[in-house]
């Protein structure tokens, strides 16, 4: 079985926060940050499988600190766990006050991607090998998150059976 080290999937993105990036509370739009998160996570996933990688789920986005126009935002992503054709990607968001240099974890996120072959069928991915303490902790706790994802997906499918597809004006 092919393996890759977590560091081979690691990606970084740094952006300034400008006035158009904030909401009426003068904090960064959550949707803008979520777009950054999905973008960088997709790059990490593709670096692992070197194939098309599609978002299967955004398991969580936890907003921990507000991000203001006086900050820059740094995102770091890497693959933390692999299944047969799926990958869990972790994204860490750090805000840095540009005047003081103070840094804080502003958000964390877990996403799941699936690798697809040239016919858009799931294809096997290399197994991931953690090296650092942070990578190992995320790897060790990934199986529990995978089980929760599976349960949530089944519940979502059952719930979807109760939802209407008819427009209100029909």
Automatic annotation (TrEMBL):
Molecular functions per Gene Ontology: hydrolase activity
Residues covered by the HotDog ACOT-type domain: 7-119
CDD domains to which the protein is assigned, alphabetical? BFIT_BACH
In its keyword annotation, does this UniProt entry include Nucleus? no
Q: Which InterPro entries match?
A: Cytosol_ACT (IPR040170), HOTDOG_ACOT (IPR033120), HotDog_dom_sf (IPR029069), Thioestr_dom (IPR006683)
Q: Which UniProt keywords apply?
A: Hydrolase
Q: Which residues form a coiled coil?
A: none
SUPFAM superfamilies per the UniProt record, alphabetical: Thioesterase/thiol ester dehydrase-isomerase
Q: Where is this region: Disordered?
A: 123-143
PANTHER family per the record?
ACYL COENZYME A THIOESTER HYDROLASE, CYTOSOLIC ACYL COENZYME A THIOESTER HYDROLASE
Instruction: Spell out the family assignment given in the record's similarity comment.
Output: Belongs to the acyl coenzyme A hydrolase family.
Protein name per the record: Acyl-CoA thioester hydrolase
State the organism of origin: Gordoniibacillus kamchatkensis
């Amino acid at each position: 079985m092919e393996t890759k080290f977590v560091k081979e999937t690691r990606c970084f993105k740094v952006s300034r926060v400008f006035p158009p990036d904030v909401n009426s509370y003068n904090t960064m739009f959550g949707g803008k940050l979520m777009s950054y998160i999905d973008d960088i996570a997709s790059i990490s996933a593709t670096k692992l499988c070197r194939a098309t990688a599609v978002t299967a789920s955004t398991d969580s986005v936890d907003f921990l600190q507000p991000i203001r126009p006086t900050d820059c935002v740094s995102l770091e992503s890497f693959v933390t766990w692999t299944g047969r054709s799926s990958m869990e990607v972790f994204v860490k968001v750090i805000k840095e006050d540009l005047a003081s240099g103070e840094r804080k974890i502003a958000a964390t996120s877990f996403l799941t991607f699936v690798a697809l072959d040239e016919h858009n069928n799931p294809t096997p991915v290399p197994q991931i090998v953690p090296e650092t303490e942070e990578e190992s902790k995320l790897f060790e706790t990934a199986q529990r998150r995978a089980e929760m994802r599976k349960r949530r997906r089944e519940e979502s499918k059952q719930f979807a059976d109760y939802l209407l597809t008819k427009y209100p004006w029909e």
